[in-house]
């Protein structure tokens, strides 16, 4: 078995992906497939933490545009990420692998609070971590959360799982002439305004010297392929 390129990673999953073809909520076959991929990644010998968006359940930015305050809308969105974390935790454990959801919010009846001590403890135990609640603050995306948590727990990279196989000069679904980048620096990603990840996340990754690998999660096994260095994606680093 090929040793993983990275020994500890944070994987950023979009909530929308978990909705599958139904477009809303949680599609259980999709959740099962994601759980299988994460378990396989852990079996490579990699310590795995996951940050999930909440867009399949609730988007704070959208509700804020309809009159709810942005802080309230973002808080509702962060709670949606916890729902996804709990669902994925249950799915992973049903498959016989250990997992643990940690929350940025104090909610003892639901989940243990995220701390670096707790994260290191559960990673050392071989658990797959599900990190919910965003940063615990409004105005920050789950992209930024993924980079922040990666820096906090000493991860070697952030794996950004998307619906395209890397960073493009434009939306490849709308512009056939869009070119794909194999590698970018953090500064180039920020200056280019590429929408695959927000500028705050790229800036924090630059400050903390964290590489970000943007790849497509459409094919089963794609997470493991990236970890083995065999996957197809864009590396944002340096």
Automatic annotation (TrEMBL):
Lineage, top ranks: Bacteria, Pseudomonadati, Pseudomonadota, Alphaproteobacteria, Hyphomicrobiales
Q: Give me the residues that bind ATP, please.
A: 12-15, 55, 59, 162-163, 168, 171
Organism of this sequence: Bradyrhizobium campsiandrae
Q: Where is this region: Involved in allosteric activation by GTP?
A: 20-25
Catalysed reaction equations from the record:
UMP + ATP = UDP + ADP
Q: What keyword terms does UniProt attach to this protein?
A: Allosteric enzyme, ATP-binding, Cytoplasm, Kinase, Nucleotide-binding, Pyrimidine biosynthesis, Transferase
Query: Which residues are involved in binding UMP?
Result: 54, 74, 135-142
The annotated subunit structure for this chain is:
Homohexamer.
Regarding activators and inhibitors, the annotation says: Allosterically activated by GTP. Inhibited by UTP.
- Enumerate the spans annotated as Aspartate/glutamate/uridylate kinase domain: 8-216
Can you name this protein? Answer: Uridylate kinase
Query: What is its subcellular localisation?
Result: Cytoplasm
Q: Which SUPFAM superfamilies match?
A: Carbamate kinase-like (SSF53633)
Q: What does this protein do?
A: Catalyzes the reversible phosphorylation of UMP to UDP.
Q: What class of enzyme is it?
A: transferase
Similarity field: Belongs to the UMP kinase family.
Query: Which terms in the Gene Ontology molecular function aspect does this entry carry?
Result: UMP kinase activity
Give the matching Gene3D superfamilies.
Answer: Acetylglutamate kinase-like (3.40.1160.10)
Instruction: Name the Enzyme Commission number(s) assigned to this protein.
Output: 2.7.4.22
| Pathway(s) where this gene product acts | Pyrimidine metabolism; CTP biosynthesis via de novo pathway; UDP from UMP (UMPK route): step 1/1
């Amino acid at each position: 078995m090929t040793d993983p390129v990275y020994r500890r990673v944070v994987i950023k999953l979009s909530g929308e992906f978990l909705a599958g073809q139904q477009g809303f909520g949680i599609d259980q076959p999709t959740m099962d497939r994601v759980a299988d991929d994460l378990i396989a990644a852990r079996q490579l010998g990699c310590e795995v933490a996951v940050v999930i968006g909440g867009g399949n359940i609730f988007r704070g930015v959208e509700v804020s545009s309809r009159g709810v305050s942005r802080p309230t809308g973002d808080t509702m969105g962060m709670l949606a990420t916890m729902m996804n974390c709990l669902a994925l935790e249950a799915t992973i454990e049903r498959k016989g692998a250990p997992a643990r959801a940690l929350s940025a919010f104090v909610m003892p009846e639901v989940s243990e609070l995220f701390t670096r001590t707790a994260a290191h403890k559960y990673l050392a135990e071989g658990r797959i971590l599900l990190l919910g609640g965003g940063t615990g603050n409004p105005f920050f995306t789950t992209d930024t959360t993924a980079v922040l948590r990666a820096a906090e727990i000493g991860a070697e990279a952030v794996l950004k799982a998307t619906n395209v196989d890397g960073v493009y000069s434009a939306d490849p679904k709308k512009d056939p002439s869009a070119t794909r980048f194999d590698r970018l620096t953090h500064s180039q990603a920020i200056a280019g305004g590429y929408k695959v990840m927000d500028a705050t996340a790229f800036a924090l990754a630059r400050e903390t010297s964290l590489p970000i690998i943007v790849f497509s999660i459409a094919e089963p096994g794609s997470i493991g392929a990236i970890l083995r260095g065999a996957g197809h994606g864009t590396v944002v680093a340096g």
